[in-house]
Design a protein that fits this description.
Order of helices and strands: HHHHHHHHHHHHEHHEE
CATH architecture of the largest domain: Orthogonal Bundle
Structural class: mainly alpha
CATH class of the largest domain: Mainly Alpha
Number of domains: 3
Number of helices: 14
Oligomer: single chain
Strand order of the largest sheet: 1-3-2
CATH superfamily of the largest domain: Hypothetical protein, domain 2
Radius of gyration: 21 Å
């Protein structure tokens, strides 16, 4: 469960060491729930998207209070936990408990879309047709559904790549609708916002200043750590609204 939270929008290479340290410190949901949520944010470090730390702490608390400290194995109970969406619930149910449920991450969605629909990339949002298509493959895999899901995720990461797919070494190239259609390209997507100078970078910089000081930091010191004052003030207010920091008259703490 911890790995699924950490791997949301973050590559394995950045997660691995923090994941190991996290489980050494908090090996059970109850151990994490016994700590203040600020400690979870502090331990999250520079992994990014720190609201995940708050949600993971909230999930650990819910598991401790509602499920006796044991991660539930039913999909509907997993979905009721804070911060657990469709993909995370399915991944936990499948990989931790062996449930035969579709696990639809970006790689799986891309593989099935190319194989069956002859399009380079899936729709922006998960569709009913995608769910139904994935369910057919999951049902066909039977008890091997978790292994099939993991295999297709790896296949999408290593062979059916978003850019420069390795079709020459693809074992299902002969059955791929996208290849048969001549590899049609998707419509041009809008360019993502640059990281440098973004609100995300600003929020991360401010939070890092606060994270390094357990006793709190003067508000002016936090604001002065970013070069654009108005942006710093707005981002600090957003961090407070998200519950990631707390402000008194002149101090910021986790």
């Amino acid at each position: 469960m911890v790995s699924e939270f950490m791997l949301q929008q973050t590559p394995v290479s950045r997660v691995l060491l923090l994941w190991q340290a996290w489980l050494e410190r908090w090996p059970t949901p109850a151990a994490l729930a016994a700590e203040q949520s600020s400690e979870a944010v502090r331990a999250w470090g520079r992994l990014g998207y720190p609201r995940r730390a708050l949600r993971l702490h909230a999930s650990a608390t819910a598991i401790t209070e509602r499920h006796g400290g044991q991660v539930p194995d039913r999909l509907e109970e997993l979905l009721a936990l804070p911060g657990v969406g469709d993909y995370t619930a399915a991944a936990i149910a499948s990989f931790a408990f062996g449930a035969a449920v579709p696990v639809l991450d970006t790689n799986v969605r891309r593989v099935l879309t190319r194989l069956e629909v002859a399009e380079a990339v899936p729709a922006a949002s998960l569709t009913k047709a995608e769910r139904a298509r994935a369910q057919l493959y999951t049902d066909a895999a039977g008890q091997l559904a978790p292994r099939w899901a993991a295999a297709v995720m790896e296949f999408g990461a290593l062979v059916c790549l978003a850019r420069r797919p390795r079709c020459a070494s693809c074992p299902v190239a002969h059955a791929c609708a996208w290849r048969a259609a001549g590899h049609p390209l998707p419509a041009a997507a809008a360019r993502p916002q640059s990281w440098h100078g973004s609100d995300r970078q600003c929020r991360g910089a401010l939070l890092d200043v606060v994270r390094r000081s357990p006793g709190g930091v003067p508000t002016q010191v936090v604001l002065d750590s970013w070069h654009v004052r108005a942006q710093a003030e707005a981002c600090l207010a957003a961090l407070e609204a998200d519950g990631l920091v707390h402000r008194t008259a002149d101090t910021v703490t986790l």
